[in-house]
Specification:
The structure is a single chain. The chain folds into two domains: 203 residues, NAD(P)-binding Rossmann-like Domain (Rossmann fold); 37 residues, no CATH class. Strands 3-2-1-4-5-6-7 form a seven-stranded parallel sheet, sandwiched between helices. The chain starts with 7 loop residues before the first strand and ends in a 7-residue tail after the last strand. Helix content is 46%, strand content 14%. With 257 residues, it is of the alpha/beta class.
């Protein structure tokens, strides 16, 4: 069991889905948590608090660099800084390139890619000063391969993996590491919407889910947030200390094809 007592983790987009699953895994390992996301976070805070660590919440809109800066300042003021940064926040829109709304492109690049840059650049000085840190970017299998209709998402996630490699090289002689995790299909609200869109054409919802998985993910099973949380814990452990600049796919065999 990885022990993270005394460490503070900031997980963006952590009031639901993948981010919450990762936050819960980190809390179970003893880390203090800073959650991030919109809306009333009181129920989520209570869920994380049960593991005994200090828990906070910052509602920064990560498409705005100024709000990210305020969130990192909050972490420094209230928690003594960020030891583990999990860049997880993300959005999606599906359309062909020549029909892709420009404002949707800009939003996806801002939230899925630029926010990773801003939160990382602002967290690194504190990690370097402490002599230890982990930057873990939740990319996607779409950071390694493309799919039609997802121009902005695929471009952003490829960018996240490139940024991960650069940060890993720039921190290579320190105890700060930077890696990317590349999930396949996880049953998040983003993926559920794609299933619902298929079902809206008259297909049975269970068949729509099966068809979605069958197209890409040979296991025919979703990756789960707790599985992603356990991989995050490994990367935070001493066993993961020399994993640097990796794009670690956890995808039910998607990339093995």
């Amino acid at each position: 069991m990885t022990t993270l007592s005394g460490k503070t983790a900031l997980v963006t987009g952590s009031t639901s889905g993948i981010g919450l699953g990762i936050a819960l895994s980190l809390a179970k390992a003893g880390a203090n948590l800073i959650l991030n996301g919109f809306g009333d976070a009181s129920k989520v805070i209570a869920e994380v608090e049960q593991f005994g660590g200090k828990v906070g919440h910052h509602s920064a809109d990560v498409s705005d660099p100024a709000q990210i800066a305020d969130m990192i300042a909050y972490a420094e003021r209230e928690f003594g800084g960020v030891d583990i940064l999990v860049n997880n926040a993300g959005i999606q829109h599906v359309a062909p390139v020549d029909e892709f709304p420009v404002e949707r492109w800009d939003s996806i690049i801002a939230i899925n890619l630029s926010s990773v840059f801003h939160s990382t650049r602002l967290s690194l000085p504190g990690m370097r000063a402490k002599g230890w840190g982990r930057v873990i970017n939740i990319a996607s299998v779409h950071g390694l391969v493309g799919s039609t209709g997802k121009a902005a998402y695929v471009a952003a996630k490829h960018g996240v993996i490139g940024l991960t490699k650069v940060v890993a090289l720039e921190t290579a002689t320190s105890n700060v590491t930077c890696n990317a995790i590349c999930p396949g299909w996880v049953l998040t609200p983003l993926v559920q919407k794609q299933i619902d869109d298929r079902a809206a054409t008259g297909i049975d919802p269970q068949q729509a889910q099966h068809d979605l998985l069958a197209e890409k993910q040979p296991s025919l099973e979703f990756v789960t947030p707790p599985q992603l949380g356990e991989l995050v814990l490994f990367l935070c452990s001493e066993a993961g200390a020399q994993v640097r600049g990796a794009a670690w796919n956890i995808d039910g065999g998607w990339l093995a094809q």
